Amino acid sequence: MKERPLPSGAEAQAMIAEARKALWVMVGFLAVIWIVQIVNWATDYALSFDFGIRARELSSLPEALTAPFLHFSWGHIESNSGPLFIFGFLAAYRGVRKFFGVTALIVIGSGLGVWLVSPANGVTAGASGVVLGYFGYIIVRGLFDRRPIDLVIGLVMALCFAYQFTALLPAEEGISWQGHLFGFGSGVIGGWVFRERRRKQVEPAPADPTVMLDPPKQP
């Protein structure tokens, strides 16, 4: 397996520019969910119940897109905000446009998993499925893109946040392990779907043989 060299020159400058964009994207994302949380809290969390996911109800399928912006308590949003910012930034720093595609895949995959597998007569909301999706994405991205820096980031995140893997298993009641598991799986799939394609190097065609003519003889 051939690895790509570390970025330098123009590539490094482009990466820094994308990292700045990623920083502001995540600041904006957190600002939105906290503003929504204030409104949600003021309405006694009516938004979470109205726009959260209700398993296997056809009318609730669109809520897969709104549920990640909603939470059920201040503690709920606080526990998600830190990992969301860290994992989201690391998922976006190499390219914001690609990050939006990865995010869409994770949101849809996690939401559909909750809708299909979660127990009936419940409502699921929260950004933790997206958090686990970003976590899965940054762990495998380096393997698919073959970039040393992303391999190191993925390994460090997997070791430092190893406790996140426990969220993929059934735990205490009221925790949507289904959203976590399907979000994580969607992030892993996103690492493959949005991997960097390598251009095949086209070898130049061999030049035509040069025909050497004898110089004209002098009379």
UniProtKB/TrEMBL annotation:
Keyword list, A-Z: Hydrolase, Membrane, Protease, Transmembrane, Transmembrane helix
Main location: membrane
Top-level division of the source organism's lineage: Bacteria
InterPro entries referenced in this protein's UniProt entry, alphabetically: Peptidase_S54_rhomboid_dom, Rhomboid-like_sf, Rhomboid_protease_S54
Pfam families given in the database record: Rhomboid
Gene3D superfamilies membership: Rhomboid-like (1.20.1540.10)
Keyword Protease: yes
Descriptive protein name: Rhomboid family intramembrane serine protease
Organism: Amycolatopsis thermalba
